[in-house]
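fyi for ur records
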Amino acid sequence: MSTGYSVAVVGATGAAGQTTLRILEERKFPVRELRCFASERSVGKTVTFGGEPVTIRRIDPAEFKGVELAFCAAGSAQSKEVAPMIVRAGAVVIDKSSAFRMDPTVPLVVPEINPHAARAHQGILACPNCTTIVTVMPLKPLHDAARLRRVIATSYQAVSGAGVNGIEDLRQQTLAWARGDAIVARHFPHQIAFNLIPAIDRFGDNRYTGEEMKLVNETRKILEAPDLPISPTTVRVPVFTSHSIAVNAETERTVTVEEARELFARFPGLRLWDEPAENRYPMPILVEGQDDCFVGRVRADLSHPSALNFWVVGDQLRKGAATNAVQIAELLIR
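which gave:
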């Protein structure tokens, strides 16, 4: 292809990297040249893009010469090292890790919510945490209409949020249970099959986990509401794909259930799926593979006149990671 962009994907063999390649294809992003990178053990292997094999390269400054746009789908430690190197080579980096999210010089972007933030980039743009993206999508229309006063969010997070090792842990444990073998936890600190783990990431001094504080700090940055009170709980659940969040949102002005449903239905990237009498509400198994976030179970808070409860589900590998990153790239080239 003679037109388009020279694109790099770092972490191309991981779950997020593989999904990024798939989304680039699906959305027909104008890729003139694709360079793929991963850990040393993957160098020389191939991934598929556009029906053709692409060889995994070694991460080296010279390998990024001529790259215009790079997606970093690696861990935060690697991103801190690699992203500035790629920028020095002349590319714009869209990073999916937590490395730069709270850096005041780096825009934290969800294109449906704060596209204007992308204009201020200095070579690096950050994708929010996957749980944050799914949670903030329905919060934005409420915030614009009635100003959020307080948010309580409890997430039920799929194992693929922990990468390929999380997927394999659930798969192997489920197979072991079916065979009657002993269940061994290899990646998660406890058995995840047929269980819930009410802690994701390390605990801080305030007894909240890193994952919970990401939800607090990133939501405030995206909504440009630095003092918004947010109370988070994150739970790992035995689901392969799609994060679910139970949200209680208090607003300055009372928003009726009917108004909230209209706000959600009109907001780009959200789909209202809310017919409880017909058992129609978002579930991970239905949302997997979708780019939109689905919201339902919209109801008034019985304990507070200006609060609503709702349930939102999003495929965290797509909108929660890869799709959001590709949408940022589309925003940049526009």
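DSSP finds eight helices and 13 strands in the chain. thats all i got for now
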